[in-house]
Design brief:
six-stranded parallel β-sheet, alpha/beta, 16% strand, five-stranded parallel β-sheet, 23 strands, 668 residues, 21 helices
């Protein structure tokens, strides 16, 4: 028997429970192995979002910016990007470390509104940007990681794992390396489910080998299986990874000392579990398990049958044993008939968890079906739409879509939508009418959650039979991109997939009509965020207006940060705001010259604006409590009316707080 350690590495969605890793640990224990399980994805968020660490990072950012402003010019685009990233980090304000804990609790709270969650996500994202500055130009974000290296290349993954200057996970893994050296397990199993976990996993494996740890290192999990298939079973990281799991099943191919640990299938329902996971830490409490219809086939996208629905139901029952309040998000789009079969199994068994599901495109949900799903605990239905595809004509599509949404809401299920653009069987020219239809019926659904581009993935049915699905040409594989997950194609309508993003840009702008629709950072948690609007997640202090005859005291809102920059920050914002290292090319431009700029950032709105020196001077005077009359007296009389108008605007927008004189502690 072996001593084993199963680790879930960062950087994955913090709202999705890694139940497969827990199930692996339970299966290994059932074979009398000693197993330790660590969800280091959650630990990484704790590490990067630690208030003391954020405060230290912000102080270092202040020193960096001061040094750069003392210089005569920015000589390279890399320096300019560093200046921009550092300036943005400081605009997020000194209160950011204190705000993070509250923002995380908002994201954990099931009762939080869409507006509250979006504000909280923005705060957490800002904190991760600040925490990642020490590894510039790399960028950490919620469930993502951007380095100057591509995770689509095994060689670039290797280079990223050894580049300590830009790898933010080196300091994070030091404590784990010390623990593994002390415990001396026979093997460490790194369980990866998404591509963002590859580079952090290789970083830990490299550090363990450099520390002369004797444990074998195994890379396993759904994405490890993808790597093995993509590379024809070869292991490009043999100096760090002893075994790259490969096999027909989710848990197959895991070996230690050349002995297979698990040979049997994965369909035993009593082995699915949540044991050993920090269930109170995941976002969206009670926690959410994201379940596909089939576990062992990553490309399964069928409509289901009685056998697969029964297997899904058994997994739900088994996982609920550990956490009865566990919620389920069914991530494989299902037709209403099979959703009702699942509801029938629940009703027959007296099992009524909170759950929601994706719904296949081109389907219709009757009132009777909606009522059956709601009675079985379904809280939302997330309709996947591919334009009008799947319906005989546009008129039928519009009628059946709106009927389905109406029936779902009447039964008590919230209606969420995701739009997939660029399906090879769909003519993009029809999308303009589809977008107009959605806008006309925006009050018929609760939230538009995602806009996705169609991706051609090796191993999918589109890949295996392209002609049947409207694909007339598939791009060639790139030798250096041996882990490429999506391939370019040309549809029967003559559309090149490389052109989908610019084609989609106008549609995205046309669809984002309501606050909360199409969030920039999308988590599985968003599928549960359909509550009504509530108070701001962080800014909760109301103005205390003076009594009649009292004198108003003004003070700048703590949500407002104002700074003076030596370079044109508005232009920097336009140049760098959407830049992602490793994903978008560096701009073809010369570094900007010095130009004094005054910037105001509204943390409660996530908006930046450039102001003139006179307005900035007023802002500076409002940093400390000041009587409105005394503030007006500091400026020439001819400016009094325009200043009053500015102050009225700021009061209305919440940029300044208004107090009764007795409520403010006036400075001398």
């Amino acid at each position: 028997m072996f001593s084993l350690q199963v680790i879930v590495p960062p950087q994955a969605d913090p709202s999705s429970v890694p139940y497969r890793a827990s199930t692996l640990a339970k299966r290994l224990r059932a074979l009398h192995h000693t197993v330790r399980l660590d969800d280091d994805n959650q630990h990484a968020y704790d590490f990067f979002l630690d208030p003391k660490r954020l405060t230290a990072c912000r102080l270092e950012a202040e020193r960096t910016l001061n040094q750069m402003e003392e210089g005569s010019r920015l000589s390279t685009l890399r320096e300019e990007y560093l200046y921009y990233r550092t300036g943005r980090a400081l605009l997020y304000g000194a209160n950011l470390p204190k705000q993070v804990e509250h923002a995380w609790s908002v994201l954990q709270n099931r009762g939080s509104s869409v507006a509250q969650r979006e504000e909280a996500k923005r705060i957490v994202q800002h904190a991760l940007e600040v925490a990642g500055l020490s590894a510039f130009p790399s960028l950490i974000s919620l469930h993502d990681l951007n380095l100057p290296y591509s995770s689509e290349s095994s060689e670039q993954c290797r280079r990223a794992a050894v580049d300590d200057a830009v790898n933010p996970y080196v300091p994070f893994w030091r404590e784990r390396v010390g623990q593994i050296k002390s415990d001396r397990p026979d093997a460490v199993i790194l369980w990866i489910e998404v591509d963002q976990q590859v580079i952090p996993s290789l970083t830990l494996a490299r550090m363990l080998k450099e520390a002369a740890v004797s444990a074998e290192i195994v890379l396993a999990g759904p994405f490890a299986q993808f790597i093995s298939r993509a590379l024809g079973g070869s292991n490009p990281w043999k100096e760090w990874i002893d075994t790259l799991a490969c096999g027909p099943g989710l848990f197959s191919g895991i070996t230690v000392q050349e002995q297979p640990l698990l040979a049997e299938g994965t369909d035993s329902p009593d082995l699915w579990t949540l044991e050993g996971l920090p269930l109170d830490r995941y976002l969206g409490q009670p926690p959410v398990a994201v379940l596909p219809l089939v576990e062992d086939d990553p490309f399964f996208d069928g409509k289901g049958d009685k056998e697969t629905i029964a297997g899904l139901y058994q997994r739900m029952r088994a996982l609920s044993q550990r956490k009865p309040t566990l919620r389920f998000y069914l991530s494989t789009p299902l037709i209403p008939e099979w959703l009702c079969e699942l509801a029938r199994l629940m009703e027959a068994d007296g099992f009524r968890p909170a759950w929601g599901s994706l719904v296949s495109y081109g389907t219709w949900l009757s009132a009777e079906q909606a009522a059956q799903l709601a009675a079985a605990g379904c809280e939302f239905l997330h309709f996947e739409l591919k334009g009008f595809l799947g319906y005989p004509d546009q008129h039928t599509a519009k009628q059946q879509m709106t009927d389905s949404w109406r029936n779902a809401r009447a039964a008590g299920c919230s209606v969420l939508l995701s739009v997939v653009f660029g399906h090879p069987l769909s003519d993009p020219r029809d999308f303009e009418a589809f977008v107009s239809f959605l806008n006309e019926h925006q009050f018929a659904y609760d939230r538009l959650v995602r806009f996705q581009l169609f991706r051609l993935t090796p191993g999918s049915r589109f890949w295996n039979d392209p002609a049947a699905y409207g694909i007339v040409e598939i791009g060639e594989a790139e030798r250096e991109r041996d882990l490429k997950r999506h391939f370019p194609f040309v549809s029967r309508y003559g559309v090149n997939s490389a052109d989908l993003y610019p084609l989609a840009a106008d549609f995205i702008a046309g669809l984002k009509r309501r606050a909360g629709d199409l969030p920039t950072t999308a988590l599985k948690l968003d599928d549960w965020a359909f509550r009504g609007e509530g108070r701001s997640a962080v800014s909760q202090q109301a103005n205390q207006l003076p009594d009649e005859g009292g004198e108003a005291v003004l003070q700048l809102s703590p949500d407002v940060e104002a700074r003076r920059f030596s370079y044109p920050f508005g232009t920097l914002e336009q140049r760098w705001r959407t830049f992602l290292i490793g994903q978008t090319p560096w701009p073809e431009a010369e570094p900007l010259q010095q130009s004094l700029t005054y910037v105001v950032y509204r943390n409660d709105r996530g908006k930046m604006s450039v102001v003139n020196s006179a307005v900035f001077n007023v802002i500076e005077l409002c940093r400390q409590p000041v009587k409105e009359a005394e503030l007006l007296a500091k400026f020439p009389a001819r400016q009094a009316e325009s200043l009053r108008s500015l102050l009225r605007k700021w009061k209305k927008e919440g940029m300044v707080r208004v107090y009764a004189e007795s409520a403010a502690a006036l400075s001398d």
